[in-house]
Amino acid sequence: MTLSVLVIGAGITGMATAEFLRREGISATLVDKVYPGDPKQTSFGNAGLLASSSIIPISSPKVWKKLPYFLFNKNSPLSINWSYLPKLMPWLIPFLRNTKKENFLSIINAIQELTNDSVDQHLTLAKGTRASKYIKLGDLTLLYPDKSEFDLDNFENSLRIKYGFKMRELNRDNLLDMDPFLGKNYNCGALFENHGWLTSPENYMRELANHFKRNGGKIIIEEVKKITGNKVLTSKNNIIKADKIVICAGAWSGKLLKIINHRTNLETERGYHLQLKKVNYMPSNPYLVSDLKFAITPMNDGLRCAGTTELGGLEAKPNYRRIDILREGIKKVYPRLKWEDEEIWMGHRPTTPDCLPVVGQSNELKNIYFAFGGQHIGLTIGPRLGRILTDLILNKKINMSLDAYKYTRF
Ligand SMILES: Cc1cc2nc3c(=O)[nH]c(=O)nc-3n(C[C@H](O)[C@H](O)[C@H](O)COP(=O)(O)OP(=O)(O)OC[C@H]3O[C@@H](n4cnc5c(N)ncnc54)[C@H](O)[C@@H]3O)c2cc1C
In the chain, what percentage of residues exceed pLDDT 70? Predict the structure, then answer.
């Protein structure tokens, strides 16, 4: 009989897992509260970057130097919702411990294992589907205000180079050759070749889902409330059975692990996007603005400014002051930019205290598997996590150790 697998969560991680399983002849079902491409998914509103070289976790030793600015400046790209602090502590303390240099370096090594072929992984996932037209190949440039700010990132950029990413240093003239619209606040760049981005993350997700369904995959729009043995119970009191169950519920995965008495340490880093529509200028490639910690991505439906981090949990309402920060930020990069319309959005990055995802099989319940915790690069590594889980479920050889990503490490 054909093996059946139920994947809970149809964001990029679950979608890729279910699609790769389907391609292997497995009877794959996705269950989610919403259809892929819905604004409630983090995979809907991200910056769309297939950011292979984004291997530096936010738990960097530099955090300590910038902590007072992060905590007490209202325009800082990182903010904490103070009323949430007591609940945040069990995550925050180990997170700060991971800023030790040796931890930082081993985390980078484990991140690059997942990102190094991410553009190829997305091309493979999208091949033969209508999603492929939303992948664009190009360079990714980190923008710096000046040479001294660029030099402050020398260590991080040298690590990127060490792991094989090709970097070109750009001065003001090089930047203007590439992008004459750039304002005078940014005078240095680090350009990384061979990257990619999505011109519409929402349509990419939707087309992957449509393809999955058209080719025999099943999608059930219901919320999972309970998992027992090889069954799940949904909000509509339906019972879905499968030989194996995979938890890919993004920032909500912790709640599902609790139901099956498994411990994890997952928080959410809330992030925002401001999409500028009918703009008078579009760059040809995306940017990461190093000091303001947001991305600028040219998309089909406008220029998306996305990023910043807010530690405030899953339940708090969006804080639209964060959107003002993005609006002020884009004006700093492009003082002459004009637009006619805006779309705003808030989403939940799933993040562990070591910024590494949880990937693998439960020790106690052998039919349960996990893939969540993609943090700032969850879109980039989604297909890779899907491939790893597919190989694990099919008992295929995986050419890397999964020790760094075990759920038992916390
Ligand atoms: C502002 C911002 C910018 C970003 N930019 C980038 C970027 O440029 N590049 C990049 O690589 N990453 C980026 N990210 C991160 C990336 O978007 C996420 O890490 C990634 O989308 C997580 O994917 P996921 O599938 O794990 O989770 P999600 O996309 O959130 O999907 C989880 C799914 O699980 C479902 N679910 C939860 N609980 C249940 C339940 N009980 N029953 C049924 N379904 C359930 C949810 O409805 C949801 O659809 C960004 C994030 C933000 C916020």
Answer: 100
> Is 162 inside any structural domain?
yes
- 154 Cα–ligand 1 center, Å: 31
Residues 206 and 293 in one domain: no
- CA of residue 188 to ligand 1 center, whole Å: 32
**11 C-beta closer than 6 A to ligand 1:** yes
Closest C-alpha among 78, 5, 14 to residue 253:
14
What is each CA distance from 146 to 26, 153, 183, 184, 317, in whole angstroms? 53, 11, 13, 10, 36
11: in domain: yes
For the stretch 19-56, pLDDT in tens is 999 999 999 999 999 999 999 999 999 999 999 999 99
Q: Which atom of ligand 1 lies at the shortest distance from residue 375's CA?
A: 19
Give the Å distance between the CA of 113 and the centre of ligand 1.
20
Residue 312 Cβ inside 6 Å of ligand 1? The answer reads no
Instruction: Give yes or no for a contact between 5 and 242, defined as CB atoms under 8 angstroms apart.
Output: yes
